[in-house]
C-alpha cells in the first residue's frame, strides 16, 4: 500500500521490506542517539477495555487520559479513603477541562477530545440514553464480548465498533480502508488462529454471535463488506494482532513528576508503601487499560534484542517510539513484543510464545546467537507458560 509512505521519510523513518521477517519493517532515514524520540504518533483508533471501564477505571473516552486525580486513584486502588497524597502540584489531572457527552454521559478530558470523538465515530455510537441502556444493540454487543473475554484483557469489541462507526461517518472511506489494510496481511488460516486465540475454544459460535450483534448495532451499506463472515473474521484478527496495549494512571504520572523534580526524598518510602497497598487490594490491575491501532508504529518488527521502546509520555494514547540504543541511518527499528518477564526467558520459551501469539518464528540477532541453546524450558518457565 502506498499510503503516506512519502511523508514518513520527513519524520526520520520509512516503511520498507524487512530482510529479517520477509514482511515489512520500520527503518531510520537518519541517525538517532539513545534516548531520542524517533516518532510520536496518534492512533487510527483506540479504546479502553470493556471490563476495565466497567470496573470504574476512569479514562477519557477518546484519548484514555486519566480522569481521576492521583489521590482519588490511590484511594480507589488501595480501598483506603484516608490516604493523603502530598505535592498536589505534581498531579496533572485538570478536572476543570473535563466535559461530558450530554446524551450518553461518557466523559472526555477536553472539548477537543469530545469533538474528535463525535466527528470520528461517537455521533454513530452515542446511545442517546443517560446512564446506559442494557437493551441497546451496542450494549448487547459489549456484554456478549465481556462474557467471552474476562480479564486480563487483550482487546475489546468496542475497538471494532469504533472502526465500523468511523466507516459510517467518514467521507473518504477508501483512504481509511487503505490504512487499515496496510496494518497487516494475513492468510485466512492465520486469521483463524488469531481469532481463535482471542475468542477461545467456542470460537466459531462466538464469532457468529459477535457478527450477528455487530450487524444489529452497526449494519449499514457502508459496513457491509466488514460484516460478511470473512470480512468480520479479518477485522477480529486485525484488532487481535495489531492492537498495541496502552496503560495510563494518574498516580504513575504523579510518581514520574515527583521523581523528575527530585522534590522530596521522603516520598520514596510513601510511594513504595502505596504500591504495596495497591497490589494487595487490586493485584496487577493498576492502570486504565486499552488498545490502539497505529499506522506507523505497527510496522515495527519484534526483536528479542530490541533497539527501541514504545512509551506513552503524555499519559494518553499518543505513542512515542524511543531509541534504546544509538541507531545508524538505514537501520531497522525493533521493539519487543514480549514483556520483561518473557523476554528474560530462554530462546525456546521466547520463540514458543511468539509462535503461539504472533504466528512467526523469531530469527532475531539474539535468537541466532543463542541457536545452540538446548530446546528446553525450566520447570519454572513451564508452569508460567501454563497460566
Ligand atoms: Zn482526552
Ligand atoms: Zn454520547
Ligand atoms: Zn528472537
Outline the structure in words.
- With 387 residues, this protein is an alpha+beta fold.
- Among the domains are: 1-43 and 294-336, Beta Complex (Beta-clip-like); 53-188, no CATH class; 347-387, no CATH class.
- 43% of the residues lie in helices and 13% in strands.
- The protein is built from 16 helices and 12 strands.
- Strands 1-2-12-9 form a 4-stranded mixed sheet.
- The longest helix is centred in the middle third of the chain and has 16 residues, at 203-218.
- It is globular.
- The two termini are 39 Å apart.
- The model is unreliable at 1-7 and 383-387 (pLDDT under 50).
- The structure holds zinc ion (ZN) (3 copies).
- One zinc ion binds next to loops.
Keywords:
4-stranded mixed β-sheet; 387 residues; alpha+beta; disordered N terminus; SET and MYND domain-containing 5 protein; single chain; disordered C terminus; Beta-clip-like; 12 strands; zinc ion binding; 43% helix; 16 helices; binds zinc ion; globular; Znf_MYND; SET_dom_sf
- Ends distance: 39 Å
Please state roughly what percent of the residues sit in beta strands, choosing from under 5%, 5-15%, 15-25%, 25-35%, 35-45% or over 45%. 5-15%
Chemical compounds bound to the protein: zinc ion
Order of helices and strands: HEEEEHHEEHHHHHHHEHHEEEEEHHHH
Low-confidence runs: 1-7, 383-387
Give the radius of gyration. Answer: 22 Å
Amino acid at each position: 500500500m502506498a499510503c503516506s509512505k512519502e511523508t514518513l521519510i520527513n519524520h526520520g523513518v520509512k516503511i520498507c521490506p524487512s530482510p529479517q521477517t520477509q514482511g515489512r519493517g520500520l527503518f531510520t532515514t537518519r541517525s538517532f542517539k539513545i534516548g531520542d524520540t524517533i516518532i510520536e504518533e496518534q492512533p487510527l483508533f483506540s479504546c479502553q477495555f470493556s471490563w476495565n471501564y466497567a470496573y470504574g477505571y476512569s479514562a477519557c473516552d477518546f484519548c484514555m487520559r486519566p480522569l481521576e486525580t492521583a489521590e482519588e486513584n490511590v484511594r480507589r486502588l488501595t480501598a483506603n479513603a484516608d490516604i493523603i497524597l502530598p505535592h498536589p502540584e505534581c498531579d496533572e489531572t485538570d478536572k476543570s477541562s473535563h466535559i461530558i457527552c450530554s446524551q450518553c454521559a461518557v466523559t472526555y478530558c477536553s472539548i477537543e477530545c469530545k469533538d474528535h470523538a463525535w466527528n470520528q465515530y461517537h455521533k454513530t455510537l452515542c446511545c442517546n440514553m443517560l446512564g446506559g441502556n442494557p437493551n441497546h444493540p451496542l450494549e448487547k454487543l459489549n456484554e456478549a464480548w465481556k462474557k467471552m473475554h474476562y480479564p486480563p484483557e487483550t482487546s475489546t469489541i468496542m475497538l471494532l465498533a469504533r472502526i465500523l462507526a468511523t466507516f459510517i461517518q467518514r467521507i473518504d472511506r477508501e483512504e481509511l480502508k487503505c490504512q487499515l489494510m496496510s496494518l497487516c496481511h494475513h492468510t485466512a488460516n492465520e486469521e483463524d488462529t488469531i481469532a481463535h486465540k482471542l475468542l477461545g475454544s467456542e470460537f466459531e459460535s462466538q464469532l457468529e454471535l459477535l457478527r450477528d450483534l455487530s450487524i444489529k448495532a452497526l449494519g449499514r451499506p457502508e459496513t457491509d463488506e466488514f460484516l460478511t463472515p470473512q470480512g468480520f473474521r479479518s477485522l477480529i484478527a486485525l484488532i487481535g494482532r495489531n492492537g498495541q496495549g496502552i496503560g495510563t494512571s494518574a498516580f504513575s504520572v504523579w510518581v514520574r513528576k515527583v521523581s523528575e523534580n527530585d522534590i522530596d526524598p521522603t516520598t520514596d518510602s510513601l510511594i513504595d508503601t502505596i504500591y504495596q497497598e495497591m497490589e494487595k487490594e487490586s493485584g496487577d490491575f493498576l492502570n486504565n487499560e486499552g488498545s490502539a491501532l497505529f499506522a506507523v508504529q505497527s510496522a515495527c518488527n519484534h526483536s528479542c534484542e530490541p533497539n527501541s521502546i514504545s512509551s506513552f509520555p503524555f499519559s494518553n494514547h499518543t505513542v512515542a517510539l524511543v531509541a534504546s540504543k544509538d541507531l545508524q541511518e538505514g537501520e531497522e527499528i525493533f521493539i519487543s513484543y514480549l514483556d520483561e518477564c518473557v523476554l528474560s526467558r530462554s530462546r525456546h520459551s521466547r520463540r514458543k510464545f511468539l509462535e503461539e501469539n504472533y504466528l512467526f518464528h523469531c530469527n532475531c540477532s539474539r535468537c541466532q546467537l543463542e541457536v545452540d541453546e538446548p530446546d528446553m524450558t525450566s520447570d519454572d518457565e513451564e508452569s508460567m507458560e501454563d497460566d
